[in-house]
Amino acid sequence: VADESYPDDLLYHPEHDWARLDGGDAVLGITWFAQDSLGELVHYEPPDVGATIGKDASYGEVESVKAVSDLISPLSGEVVEVNQRVVDAPETVNEDPYGGGWLIRIRLADPSEADALLDAAAYKQLLAEQ
Amino acid sequence: MVNRTGYTGEEGCELMCMAEDAAALWDTVTARAILPCGLGARDTLRLEACFPLHGNDITPETDPISAGLGWTCALQKDFTGVEELRRIKERGPDEKLVPFVMEERAVPRTDMPIVEGGRVTSGSHSPMLDVGIGMGYVRADLAAPDTELTIDVRGRQRKARVVAKPIYKRPESN
User: Fold this and answer.
1) What are the tens digits of pLDDT across the range A51-91?
2) C-alpha span between B152 and B96 (Å, rounded)
3) Are residues B105 and A87, on separate chains, in Cβ contact within 8 Å?
4) Which of A72, B11, B155, B163 is the most exposed place for a label (fewest CB within 10 A)?
């Protein structure tokens, strides 16, 4: 299991999801805090490639033995890739939430939406207040 | 008192002591590198062993014949409800509690509908088998092992298969 961290190169959503901007795309995942709260993941229910997902809306689910959690998208766009490694081995998210444990890649519908997301410092502040 | 009557689905024993001794006993046991576990872990054990849980798989609305617990009922004796139980035993239950294993990736949960009729009463992810497992009531004609079932997992239909009890049994160790 990974050590707690919140990389500076990511943007964060208050529902404990992260986005890594990559040109007109973004790669999405859940934060260390989210995977730690859920415990070892045993199931990842991804969206279909080609699906349209909306900012602040659920695009899939992750599930541990004890709980199921909606995945909230920080940004709007079209799903262009699903991380099959996490479908096959959901615990990858616990081991490497910001690397091998990424969940989907989307083509951004409106890159300016990223302006409303939190940077690492603001997200850590939000965690501290909880 | 040391009991071997536990209902956890795992080998071991239950220790009972006076309340004032409990903290010291706990500290003594856990000091021997024995790790505490929570109810989530215990629930996977009893479900792999197909032990029905009261409040989930057996309730005031269910009966022991349908739940596969007829072996606990001395139907030749008289007790409250024995006539109804004899009737159910005689004609066969309409529904039976069956264990099942997911054929597709999904974790069944309590109260999910079984599309062919019935509902899930317990569900989890089996750490030993690394698949979703559960128990639920189905029509008696769907209760035989190998029968295909469909679980409605929050609107998604996922295949499951009825299995024989227990869902998982650890190979014998001597």
Assistant:
1) 999 999 999 999 998 889 999 999 999 999 999 999 999 99
2) 19
3) yes
4) B155
User: Which pLDDT belongs to residue B174?
Assistant: 56
- ipTM, interface predicted TM-score of the complex: 0.80
- Considering only CB atoms, which chain B residues are within 8 Å of A65? 40-41, 44, 124-125, 127
Which chain A residue lies closest to B124 (C-alpha atoms)?
Answer: A65
Q: Which helix (H) or strand (E) holds B47?
A: helix B39-48
pLDDT at A117 > cutoff 80: yes
- The residue type found at B172 is E
Gap between the Cα atoms of B145 and A87, Å rounded = 28
Q: In angstroms, rounded to a whole number, what is the distance separating the alpha carbons of residues A32 and A95?
A: 10
Contact B107 A43 (CB under 8 A): yes
Q: Residue A26 corresponds to which tokens in the numbers above?
A: 């973004």
Task: Specify the DSSP class assigned to residue A77.
Answer: E
- Within 8 A of A61 by CB-CB distance, chain B residues are 154
> How far does B169 lie from chain A, in Å, by closest CA?
19
| CA dist., res. B20 & res. B43, Å (int) | 28
Contacts of B29 (CB under 8 A, 6+ apart): B15
Residue B48: CA atoms inside 13 Å, Cβ hemisphere, count?
19
Interchain CB contacts (distance < 8 Å): A and B: 23
To the nearest whole angstrom, how far is the Cα of A23 from the nearest Cα of chain B?
33
pTM: 0.87
SS3 A79: strand
Contact A65 B40 (CB under 8 A): yes
Rounded CA gap, B73 and B64, in Å? Answer: 8
Residues of chain B with pLDDT under 70: 173-174
